[in-house]
Amino acid sequence: MILSACHHRLEFPRRPMVMGILNVTPDSFFDGGRFTLAEQAVEHGLRMEDAGAEVIDVGGESTRPGAAPVSEAEECRRVLPVIAGLSARSRTLISVDTRKPGVARRAIDMGACIVNDVGAAGERSDLWRLVAETGAGYVLMHMQGIPETMQQTACYEEVVGEVKRFFEARLEGIRAAGVRLEQVLLDVGIGFGKRLEHNLQLLACLGEFKILGRPLVAGLSRKSMIGDLTGAAVADRLPGSLAGACWAALEGADVLRVHDVPETVQALRIVDSLSQARRASSRG
Ligand code: PT1
Questions:
Q1: Which domains can be identified in the chain, with CATH numbers?
Q2: Mind listing the pLDDT tens digit for each residue in 220-263?
Q3: Pocket test for ligand 1, best of 141, 149, 237 (most atoms within 8 A of CB)
Q4: What angle do CA 14, 159, 187 make, to 5 degrees?
Q5: What's the whole-number mean pLDDT along residues 167-192?
Q6: pLDDT band at 34 (very low <50, low <70, confident <90, very high)
Q7: How many CA atoms lie within 13 A of 41 on its CB side?
Q8: Quick check: is 223 catalytic?
Q9: Separation of 226 CA from ligand 1 center, angstroms?
Q10: pLDDT digits (tens, 9 = 90+) for 104-123
């Protein structure tokens, strides 16, 4: 299958890609406040590229549970200088983590080629028309509720089936807005209106989403699911994050959205080499 994102075309399946997280927010749950200066953020992005990230995901609005909304002007002020700096100095794909069409448009003008939309549960026609017009890649992520309250209300009969039906319905709407399927990636949205059991079921069954025929993005880096299982504080969740990334890759995730790029690249290299060795061996 092909992923088309502005002038980029990528063929999948390929070795799992790492999407490095570049938060430009004063309040992000792990690295919040460390990269508020655009220049420092660009430097961090370049280090992630050197470490093997193939996508850099720039975000100016935290969407972790309980986070407060940010105005469009403030979000632009945070992300646009970073996207401009990165597109001048790096060769990675740049995605913009935003729910706002106005931010996405200006980010694409500055060199972003993927819109990472965690708000796909809401009214999306403006954003989809923009994606159709620009030919950008589009990450369609599942979320139940809104970040302010999503963890209090999480409720499913059967989470895997419900998320799959959400994707099917949204893919129809997206196509009706003029977006080509080739532009779309899917993400089950770990931690977005989901309790531990829901996150576990989605990751355990991630391979089932392959049937939809689009690349899968998985983001669980340092999330509370790892804390729920281990008691580890955010700063101590790297081992769990690596294990989760390896699991997701073996289950068919194509893009891993992570904070810790060098560590994840190394872990995935081992998984990928072993997967290749198994395919090459006559023992299947
Ligand atoms: C994600 C994601 C994202 N996650 C995509 N974009 C966040 N495509 C931001 C917690 O439980 O998974 N996929 N953009 C960050 N969101 C959260 C959610 C952070 C939950 C932390 C938690 O700790």
A1: 14-276 (3.20.20.20)
A2: 999 999 999 999 999 999 999 999 999 999 999 999 999 999 99
A3: 141
A4: 30
A5: 97
A6: low
A7: 28
A8: yes
A9: 13
A10: 999 999 999 999 999 887 88
Rg (Cα) of the chain, in Å, rounded? Answer: 18
From CA 160, how far away is CA 165, in angstroms rounded?
9
Q: For residue 185, which of 116, 104, 119, 244 has the smallest C-alpha distance? A: 116
Average pLDDT over residues 178-198: 97
**pLDDT tens digits along 190-222:** 999 999 999 999 999 999 999 999 999 999 999
Q: Which residues line ligand 1 (CB under 6 A)?
A: 29, 63-65, 97, 116, 118, 139, 141, 187, 189-192, 217, 219, 223-224, 257
The verdict on whether omega for the bond into residue 13 sits within 30 degrees of 0, i.e. cis, is: yes
Annotated catalytic residue 64 = no
Q: How far is the CA of 147 from the centre of ligand 1 (A)?
A: 10
User: Quick one: which atom of ligand 1 is closest to the CA of 141?
Assistant: 8
Per-residue pLDDT at 146: 84
Cα separation, 17 vs 101, whole angstroms: 26
Question: Quick one: how many helices (H) and strands (E) in the chain?
Answer: 10, 10
Which two three-digit tokens encode residue 165? 């039906």
User: Facing residues of 11 across strands?
Assistant: 2
CA distance 132 to 117: 14
Structure tokens at 46: 């370049």
pLDDT value of residue 148: 81
Q: How many Cβ atoms are within 10 Å of 103's Cβ, its own excluded?
A: 27
Q: List the catalytic residue out of 100, 106, 223, 237.
A: 223
